[in-house]
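Summary for the lay section of the report: proteins are chains of building blocks that fold into shapes. Here we show the chain for MCAfunc domain-containing protein and then a coded description of the shape we predicted for it.
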Amino acid sequence: MILEAVRTVSQNREECRHLVRRVMMIGDLMQKLQGWDMMQEPEIRRPLDGLDDTLREAYVLIVSCQNCSIMYRFFMGWKQAEQFREVQKKIDGYIQLYPFISQLDITRRLDKLCSSANPSCSQIQVSRGSFESLQLCSNLKFLCS
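The coded shape description reads as follows.
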């Protein structure tokens, strides 16, 4: 039991370092998003706010990990390990949404560009959560060349 507790404390220390690096990296990327048009869209803003809240939760966990005594870490290491797993799972859940958020933003921008280039250009139609048709203006073909 003692050996297992020592391993948990050591593993938690590594998890804490990994979490610090991950929170800093994601936080830096989130800073880059501030002020972008897409951040004004509530559907996009909500998951990013959730990620921001989770990063704050991770920060509190990191600080608590760094400020607790070795005895606390020894006896409560299992609890900290569970907290690390939970916050990592939450971060992963929000990060998995980002490709979808990015796709929505790109589609919106292309549609806006298409509409301004040719007002008769058909809009992107979305029905039942899936893209039924995606038609871009022929005027935008120059972007691919």
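Put simply, here is one thing we learned. The chain has three helices and two strands.
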